[in-house]
Amino acid sequence: MSRGQEISSRVLTVPNAVSFVRLALVPVFAILIVAHEDVWALVVLAVSGVTDWLDGVLARSLHQVSRLGQMLDPLADRLFIFVTLLGLAWREIVPLWLVAAILARDLVLALTVPVLARLGYGTLNVSQAGKVATFALLYAFPLLLLAEAGGAVGATAHVVGWAFTWWGVALYWFAGLQYLAQVRRLAVRG
């Protein structure tokens, strides 16, 4: 969102409709990954990535930035990360420690919500590190799924996918620590 752009409380906006479509794709993806329909699962992830980009562009260009949209976008990101991670772990494509590392960070941050509410704050803005971490993870998981294809494509996807995974997890925790520091500053000032 650009500085000075008004944030509305409207629910029925074009960007929010795009976000709702993205949220509706989460269970579709879950079914496809469990059913080993990897090509279709990758298509759904690609569509989700496009809608993630599109809802932000539309919100800014149509001047339809809304409180609901600001909640839906990170919610859809978290749900896709969570469902993809669980699906890949269920298929034994990623280890359980990766699931634990990512979920532990989200659990720690969820514990700050009551503190922020008590201080009169809503959710805090996503940091640049958090955006890059989410980007890295949302690219890592499709690549790790693509690595199941084998051959040169699979081998390349495996290496690049794990590179994105390591960077994503590191930045995810770095952004989480930034968020905790921000909550602490608000609590001290509070």
Task: Report what the structure shows.
The chain has helices at residues 14-34, 38-61, 67-90, 96-110, 113-118, 128-146, 151-189. It is mainly α and 190 residues long. The protein has 2 domains: 1-92; 95-190, no CATH class. The longest helix is centred in the C-terminal third of the chain and has 39 residues, at 151-189. It is globular. Pfam families: CDP-OH_P_transf. Its main location: membrane.
Mean pLDDT: 89
Biggest sheet layout: none
Would you identify the regions where 5 or more consecutive residues have pLDDT less than 50? none
Report the portion of residues in β strands: under 5%
Number of strands: 0
In one word, what is the shape?
globular
Specify the structural class. Answer: mainly alpha
* Total individual domains: 2
Helical content class: over 70%
How many whole angstroms does the radius of gyration measure?
17 Å
* Distance linking N and C termini: 26 Å
- Topology pattern, helix = H, strand = E: HHHHHHH
Q: What is the count of DSSP helices, taking H or I runs of 4+ residues?
A: 7
